[in-house]
Model the fold of this input.
Amino acid sequence: MSAYSLLPFIGWTFLPNLVTGWIQKIWYTFITRAGDPKPQPGSAKYIKHRRRIQITVIIVYLLYTVYEADHHLLKAGDFYQSLGVPFDVEDRGIKSRFRRLAASHHPDKVTRDQDREASEAFFLSLRLAQETLTNPTKRFAYDRFGPDALTWQHCSSVRDFLMMGLQTNGPLYLGFGIMMIILSMTSYLQWGRFWRYLISAALVTLEIYAVTRPYFPPILTRAINPVLSLTSHPPLLPFQFLALARQATLALFVALSQLGPLLQPPAPTTPSASNGSVDISQIARLEQFAQANEVEATRLLGLDMAPFSGDEQNLKYMRVKVKEWLVQNTIRNDPEVRDVIGKMIGKRRLGAPAGAKI
Done:
């Protein structure tokens, strides 16, 4: 896997959360009316909106990752596109097409040095394409393993190319399987673990089937390429299809690890036994504190009334004055009480006869 193909996977580490935050802020800016408060972080409404936005962002980024991998394959091109011939072309058609292209793009027909260098490079790529596609063994290897197969040394038969392809891609799948098993033992890949194993097994089976058969996979010739023929997208070769399947599988695994916590239903918030015991203990401590305050207030009141002990007349007078003070300074000064008294006085004045004093 090249560094270019790793860039979308690096984006998985921060882009979904970053884009989700931006979209949520913009969304609240448009849907919140002037003067209304926005949902605060941590609230149930805020969490629900963020969850929906993040699921959408992850799915869109998954599709973008697959599109980016496909765009990279199209940009690289293939020998059939370079020659402008279909996949089922015979050797005669390849040679005829090469002669026509060589006649119009031969470096001897170019006078400028810069154009001559580009023409030489293009002519060499055409000749390499013609030599590869007219050789049945190299054509078999190219269709299934891509241009990297042309650099393999000591490969002269189909069996040699298949063994070299197994030695090249086998450690990749083995390392990926070991890594997935190790991560599955942790909490990182718990959600969707069954589907990861199933998709991985299907991908390995598909690749073995695609590279060992003398014909293209039926899923490619009967399903994918006929659909692509309805668009401007060129048909895919087996090595392009397998490369795209690998990229899509890795992106799907990363997306599942981020979608798992979001797709799980929220756990019901039921009070636990520990929380209940904490509340009861707090209430008991509060009750003890109130009783202690009451005892202390009674003791201080007894100390203040000690000079009048044994004098019933002064004690009675003191109680009356304290009661009047409480009524005047506590009850009547309360805004609600004063409002009610004012309303009652107003009603009495409205119903009194003329000249009466109130």
